[in-house]
Amino acid sequence: MTEYIHSFLHLLFLSTVALFPVINPVGSAFIISPYMDGLDKKARRNAVKKITLYAFILCTVVLFAGHWILELFGISIPVIQLAGGIMICKIGWDSLTTGNSQGAEDAAKVHTASGESFENLQDKLFYPLTFPITTGAGVISVLFTLGAHSENASTVSYLINTSAILTAIIVMCILIFIFYLKTKTILQYFGSHTELYINRIMAFLIFCVGLQIAVTGIKALELFK
Question: Which of 57, 26, 22, 24 is nearest to 142 (CA)?
């Protein structure tokens, strides 16, 4: 029994440490925040709840059925990285090139507060806010790697390993919920102009992250070998 507990805690720690940098709930929260400008507390909370739920479902599906899905469509991890990187680059680029004037940003905020705009936001809660911003190609790769611990294992070991990874996913989802919900409060302490600057910087960084993921996928595909 002690051996099983030690194995569970060890893999739980490894899974949490491995998932934290690729999910990056702190950095992703700043990227998500502009999408929710103008929403009241209730609407923002509901949006964050859905993103958290979608993230949990996506991670769970990848953990249990990811390999089968990729094999069914004949897709490799490098292709996922390349496609996901391109998608993230587009999101970062769109954030950098839209709403450059203060007037446009104010209008966007007013429009976001309307019911029609909130409906549009609901359509974006899975793509791009959950995938690929919150849980992208990096998360899929890490979950596949962690899932390899359970391959060819006994039933007891499989249950322990899977439970540890699922617990780590739950921990990350809790962090996602907390940081996504409280980011606006943190940004309010800096003022509107500082919030604008932070949003621009984060948009540039997400563009760079997407580019890095795409380059990693290209290298793995060995297209230029």
Answer: 22
